[in-house]
Amino acid sequence: MTDSGMFGARGTGDTSGYGGLVRTAASAGSSERPYGGYFDGVADDLERAYPEFSTAIERVVVDRGELTLHIKREKLVEVAMILRDSLKFEMCMGVSGVHYPNNVGRELVAVYPLLSITNNRRIRLEVTVADSDAHIPSLVEVWAGNNWHERETFDMFGIIFDGHPGLTRILMPDDWQGHPQRKDYALGGIPVEYKGATIPAPDNRRSYK
Amino acid sequence: MTISDPYAPSRETTEGTVFSVTGGDWDSLVQEIGSTKEERVVVNMGPQHPSTHGVLRLVLELEGETVTEVRCGIGYLHTGIEKNMEFRNWTQGTTFVTRMDYLGPIFNETAYCLAIEKLLGITNDVPERASVIRVMMMELNRISSHMVALGTGALELGAITPMFFAFREREIVLDLFEMISGLRMNMAYIRPGGVQQDLPDGAIPKIREALAQMRKNFKDNTTLLVGNSIWLKRTQGIGYLDLAGATTLGITGPVLRSTGLPWDLRKVQPYCGYEDYNFDVITADTCDVYGRFLIRMNELEQSLRIIEQALDKLEKLEGAPVMVADKKIAWPAQLALGGDGLGNSLNHIREIMGTSMESLIHHFKLVTEGFNVPAGQVYAAVESARGELGAHVVSDGGTRPYRMHFREPSFNNLQATSAMSEGGMIADIIGAVASIDPVMGGVDR
Amino acid sequence: MGLKMGLEEKIPSGFLLTTVEKLAGYMRKNSLWPATFGLACCAIEMMAVGSAAKYDISRFGMEVFRASPRQADLMIVAGRVSNKMAPVLRQIYDQMSAPKWVLAMGACASSGGMFNNYAIVQGVDHIVPVDIYLPGCPPRPEMLMDAILKLHEKINVEKLGSNRAQVIKEVELAAMNAKPTHEMKGLLA
């Protein structure tokens, strides 16, 4: 196992020189009006139906042909109700969680893609919370299909949805410790044994990021 | 109270007595249950069950034969694919994604690749031939997926012959997949930027032959089941879910179309050139299992139509590239069948080793490191055989996904089981779940 | 291995035992009934084998996939076994009555496959004793039938009674003295 001499890798063996770089995930900045396409119509309708629009919305981002509304979590249920009833976004495509451990104070994000069948439109809602206070109001009252999605996001990220009828683990066994899809949770996995060598698990291999 | 039967022990819990039946005398068990004052019985249709369409656990509360409550327990196939993909580069993600909904691998791959192409901004640069091949593969996959849905659905309700016919058709489609991509299932054929390799020579006549064969074969199942009085009794009026219930639960696909709403992403938000094809959106307005069954049967015919149109287009586009032109993204290797199986084609090796230094560098960098995708997030959806399959991809500018979440149609559709089955009988749950057609690999990912 | 199965276990070693072994092996291999344990993609290939559409398993008399583990002899673990499913797998294996065999179908059942992570059991032999491993992702139906045929050969020569105890001792001794895989150096070890 331990070979000496001038050849062979010591440490990670990464010779690219980029091993020490830390990449921070930069979030997109707010977009300016006009947004283009039907996004202006959506923003106007929302402002008309919800006068406190500017207090609830943190940011509006238009990127790659998609509109994202960053909402404050206290106003989430209100905005969702208005989007569903007045702007006719009847379907919510679920909840997706993202964990940005480098954004201290704004680590956990829940993303809700919405679909309007009447108007054939798609937008996205985003709610950001801090790790220390990972509570988001539940949207099961607004769209019943979010029931399992919120359970999954709780299971995988640890975001607690207040008001959910039964927030338990859904994908992992009921007594599992930890929230697997967070960035500080290891991938798990064991070293793989081959004839003559052992390859470490995927998250421990040297790699080019 | 406890029975002394060693094969059917019981234990007291906070919810009452729990009996574990592992054999022994049924009469003594019934006597014990009968002597408790409970009217309701909680039965576990466990994850290993021939009729629950995969590793789905159903917890039923019964009053006699009527179901008062049904709950789904999922997660028995959770594979952690989404987290695993954060440690692989973008192209390697295709092999992981393809195993989520294993009956519709091409749909998974297409949703994922469309999302990456949106992030890269090359949606319009994907060559037309690649888009046409993608459409053809997706429709072939729809046929094979509906065949499994029909076959296993019929099997679970007691009809055994349709399964033989359905799997016979499926074998025809799998032969085509094997000819085109090399594998029958989980092919990893659709790559970001195009498809892995072009159709082999002589593929188009073979596919046309197979289509004619399938058209003839579909009649076997139709004559067996459509109008069959036993089938009608078991499927009509069962598993009722109307439009309001479907929209609030986020249900898409044949279940939504059985309420009468013609919502099909191929028509309303077309991708991969679907706006250039002539096909109908099949709906039913009975909102029940029979309606969904008819929808799936008729979608098979529509898929055949689309494939024929795709073949006509492919004949016109003979020789066109199947990968995006940008060499910094396009998967470099051309595969060819050699003496020891499918491997890098000798032409390609000659080019990278002999003639072009850039090709060698691109090949090396793309295979070891992968291409970089600019930061941002995107949601791309396709209409899979089960409904809207959406990929929410977040990139941080690197060669690996930062976060990849799939919105699987079966995950939402399964939530409708309670709404469809409560108040009915146990046997109707089977029909309802079969009509939802969940694939547990997609539900649990 | 090591399960007491009845009268044939009590026969003393010798000519009579070998005849009974041959007979029992022949009978058992020709009437193997699989248990339904299809989990993921490999289950679909298993259904293709069982459905008699193109690849027919009933040529071996095995098309009856018994839902009840009591009536099954062979558990074909087809697909990835997650940590949540593992206790269920063990319970089904325990509920099967001896003699029973396990076929780990596919890469995920044999070794965890491409999913080397927190959620998947890295090889179903962590939970149940496996008699035959079948690689592939998913293995073709012909590969599954080949594995079943190899299993038939193995069952055919399976020893009983005191001969079996002898075989178990030898196998265990060989395994204890065997070289671990990561120390097998040299080309094509």
Write the layout of secondary structure elements.
The complex is a heterotrimer of chains A (209), B (445) and C (189).
Chain A lengths: L38 H11 L3 H4 E7 L2 E6 L4 H10 L5 E2 L3 E4 L8 E9 L4 E9 L5 E3 L8 H12 L2 E3 L29 E3 L2 E3 L10
Chain B lengths: L9 E4 L2 E4 L6 H10 L5 E5 L11 E7 L2 E8 L7 H5 L7 H5 L7 H16 L7 H29 L4 H21 L8 E2 L2 E2 L7 H23 L3 H7 L7 H6 L5 H4 L7 H4 L20 H28 L18 E4 L2 E4 L1 H10 L1 H12 L7 E9 L2 E9 L5 E7 L1 H6 L1 H6 L4 H11 L3 H5 L1
Antiparallel strand pairs in B: 1-2, 3-4, 4-5, 6-7, 8-9, 10-11, 11-12
Chain C lengths: L14 H16 L3 E2 L5 H10 L23 E5 L7 H10 L5 E5 H6 L20 E3 L6 H16 L4 H17 L12
Parallel strand pairs in C: 1-2, 2-3, 3-4
Helix pairs in contact in C: 1-5, 2-5
- Average pLDDT value of chain B? 85
Structural class by sheet pairing and helices of chain A: alpha+beta
Structural class of chain B: alpha+beta
Q: How many runs of DSSP E, i.e. beta strands of chain B?
A: 12
> Mind describing the biggest β-sheet of chain A?
6 strands, mixed
- Overall helicity of chain A: 10-25%
The secondary-structure element order of chain B is: EEHEEEHHHHHEEHHHHHHEEHHEEEHHHH
Taking the sheet with the most strands of chain B, its summary is: 3 strands, antiparallel
Average pLDDT number of chain A = 82
Distance between the termini of chain A: 27 Å
The assembly state of the depicted protein chains is: heterotrimer
- SSE order of chain A, one letter for each helix or strand: HHEEHEEEEEHEEE
Rg for CA atoms of chain B: 25 Å
Tally of separate helices of chain B: 18
Strand content of chain B: 5-15%
Q: What's the shape of chain B?
A: globular
| Helical fraction of chain B | 40-55%
What percent strand of chain A? Answer: 15-25%
- Morphology call of chain A: elongated
Tell me the number of helical segments of chain A per DSSP (H or I, 4 or more residues long).
4
Terminal CA distance of chain B: 42 Å
